[in-house]
Amino acid sequence: MSRQARFQEDSMKIVRRVPRPGLRAMALGVTCAVAAVGCGSGSGSSDTSAGGSGGDVTIGIVNLNLSNPFFGTLGDATEAAAEAKGWKVMKAEAKVPGDSATQVTAIENMIAAKVKAIVVTPANSTALNGVLKQARDKGILVLDVNSPLDPVNTADGTYATDNLAAGKLIGEWAKASSPSDPRIAMLDFDLTDGPASGRHDGFLSGYGITMDSPLVAGSALTQGTVDTGQSAMENLLSAHPDINVVYTINEPTAHGAYTAIKNKGLADKVVIVSVDGACSGVQDVKDGIIGATAMQFPGRMGQLAVDATDAYLKDGTKPPSDEITDSGTVLITDKPVPGVDSQTSAWGLDQCWGDK
Asked: pLDDT by residue (tens digit) across 153-204?
């Protein structure tokens, strides 16, 4: 059995269901305004035919901006898994972050086309609730990936990273890897965002502190980008030059923070942790820029959604609508610590998503 096959087999064992109350969430990553709505099969041909049974099945995929490697991987994996079953695919993409209007129109078109299922990454946790209820009332299976809806049972099933667990992993690693006199900086994203708050809270829990701890030197909000990570870190270092541990909401933020730290001549004195698992971020682990990152698996989210659709088409089985199925998280570091399970950057580069 190949290494990749072993990983896929073993990694599915860590998928678990995580009960959650209503959760607001938008996806994190490098944002970019890109192309909008279209339908088609993987070959690029237009298809708006109604889904049927057996070999005449059409499903809808409603994604966020596909130029972001995370959402590109998620969309491609979902489409490939669907086409492997002989299904047709209708696709749509939000034009910019938060573009729920485009997603609503796309879902209305999919309802009219009588698709059998809709796999959606919502641009907003509540804006699609009405149109998704219309879809479910028509007997269309609705599956949410990456960004849970509020309430979570707006969808028939949800597949996402447990961001609290991801944050806890890097918090535990950071505590074990910190200098004896830790001074922590928190580089966040909008904390009303579900993944952002989950990662933030998880890090603090894993480190064993709260935001009121004297170990926390300062915090700043970023937009999850390299530039805002760098500027936020520059400002924090100006106010708190003794910072030596940095939590970052994602890997682009971490890369920007490192640039600010390096420019101050502190590159070998500061520990940086993050979340994502993009190939560029894992490379930053290998290069010593990020100490540890928590890898998530967008491709697995898409595969799980297609598997759930297949089960539904076969016998009407639906996943639990009031739970989030965790698609898994793995800590990536080349400096492992006792008591915290991890994999190396070499392993991570075999499993990462996005451009290498």
From this structure: 999 999 999 999 999 999 999 999 999 999 999 999 999 888 899 999 999 9
Same domain, 191 and 272: yes
Work out the percent of the chain whose per-residue pLDDT is above 70.
Answer: 85
Indicate the pairing of strand 157-160 with strand 292-295: unpaired
Residues 341 and 215 in one domain: yes
The residues, any chain, with a CB within 8 Å of residue 130's CB and separated by 6 or more, are: none
Q: Is 45 left (phi over 0), alpha (psi -120 to 50) or beta?
A: beta
Start-end of H helices in the chain: 3-11, 69-84, 100-112, 129-137, 163-177, 194-207, 226-239, 251-263, 279-286, 298-315, 345-351
Instruction: Note whether 92 and 180 are same-domain residues.
Output: no
Rounded to two decimals, the pTM is 0.82
Q: Residue 121: inside a domain, yes or no?
A: yes
β-partners of residue 30 are none
Number of residues in the chain: 356
Beta bridge partners of 62: 92, 120
Total domains in the chain come to: 2
Q: Which of these, 147, 97, 101, 153, lies nearest to 125 by C-alpha position?
A: 147
The count of other CB atoms within 10 Å of the CB of residue 154 is: 23
Task: Tell me the CATH number at 96.
Answer: 3.40.50.2300
Whether the CA torsion 100, 102, 106, 108 is positive or negative: it is positive
Tell me which residue range forms the domain holding 139.
31-161+297-321
CA distance 91 to 71: 13
Residue 51 vs residue 300, higher pLDDT:
300
Distance of CA 241 to the CA centre of its chain: 32
pLDDT 10s digits, 138-159: 999 999 999 899 999 999 999 9
Q: For residue 67, what pLDDT band results from cuts at 50, 70 and 90?
A: confident
Distance (Å, whole) CA 68 – CA 106: 20
